[in-house]
Request: fold
Amino acid sequence: MSADTKSSNKNLLEQAIRIFGTTNHYTIGKLYLSFAFINFISAGILAMIMRGVMFNPAGESSGLGSIARGFVDPETYNRLFTTHGTIMIFFVIFPTAVGFANYMVPPLIGAKDLYWPRWNNLAFWMLVPSALMVWVGFADVGWTGYAPYSTQYAVADQRVILWAGGLLLAGVSSIIGAVNLVMTIIHMRRPGLSWKKVDLFTYSVLFGQIIQLFATPVVASGLIMIIFDRILGAGWLAAEAHTGPPTVGQDVIGVNGPILYQHIFWGYGHPAVYIIILPAMGLTSLLISTFSRNKVFGYPSMALSMFTIMFLSFYVWMHHMFTIGAGQVFLLLFSASTFIIAVPSGIKTFNWLMTMYGGEIKMEIPFLFAVTFLIGFVLGGSSGVFNAVVPLDLVVHDTYWIVGHFHLIIVGGAVSAFFGAFYYLFPHMTGKMYNQKLAYGHWILWTIGGWITYIGMHIVGLYGMPRRYYSYDVIADRKVLFGMSVTLWQQIISVGAFIMGFSILLLLINIFWTITKGEPAGPDPFGLGDRSWAWEENSSFRVDLEENMEEEAK
Reply:
């Protein structure tokens, strides 16, 4: 072995050790984003396989669906959507939000790092084995893990235990990260930075992580019950047999079993939606303000609306459970709370539009992705308001309507905002400017493909297409909107999903091209002057970022 080779290997080892042990919040932020992106690609491939399966009903002997079913049996299909959903929520979207928080919050509030830098490092590296446990487990319980299937009937105990154990470990990581971010924002703001001057992204992170602190222990209790039921036969979540017809509200309060688990899961699950949405809202405010070259309209109402969302997020969980036979009082209360939580979201939408109206817009890729978030959030939120109407929810519950609603908000909305923030920060992170044509191609295909996919899901769901089914032979020929069959609409949905997948291929090409051939970004890559790197006038983001880039260059 030559001296040069030995020196190169030594440098690689030293660099690996430095990255593994880093406490620099910029580096840890990049690690979170890289980890999330790898899982995003992997879970996205699972989605493409599922859309291939759904291209034709199982009764057809030809076509893409028939080919895909040659490799994917019903049990494997269950594992695909379980792993896809679990990875996307817990190992893509959550880490992405925390990655941007790590990268941006300390400099925005004038802190040099997070409150506990070493715990910050630990919180990230705990995600790696937890994600591996979920991938290796490849369970078939759905991302919700509903009992009694997850506790009594799912195939292979070890798969379910790996799935639940991986999520428990991820939950510990989330709590450590949440405590760290909350303590950083509360105690490490620079002198003179009062709560009235804190930027909206920092507020969004604070409120989202407070939700994380209170909600994660709830779902952890449910996961522990699943593990104990599987290993020890504890029976905490066992299905109960009733000797007579159930009375109204019988299974709602104070009863073990599947209904108890639903309360536990959605007591976490719906607040968790806002752990995702709140940082996306904060980033959208940043992007719209920056590229409209205007301060956010109605700053106090924006901050207050996020606080209201944080508070109300804990009072809407049971709209996921309108079909369990709850009493009328419960239905009325949770229907009303679901309507009410739409109000602060409407305030934010109005303020974003007014920010653009009063500004001088520069149509850069980060801004366009922020607009995609805004449209996806409004469309998905509108179908969510329909779900608050109990009679309608009884019809569309567990159909593709719900799948379309959720994905339109989370993927068409929040993930779009994350892409916008990625394009905004990429020149900062690498010092190079991405290829504009490839970026525009990514945005156009991602946006159009997403709308085709998720609006199509709304349509077939409204006509009774159930979610999670391996086949839909029974309703394959049913005529729905515009006289087109369910099969044709499923094919349209799949084509939209494939368009989204191709857009990610353009993103990968762009990243590789930028790293290898990209031009230097320069001090003002978007031509925005002093607004390029700063959201609020009192932000130290630009100064700290430039100092960090100089340190990394050395």
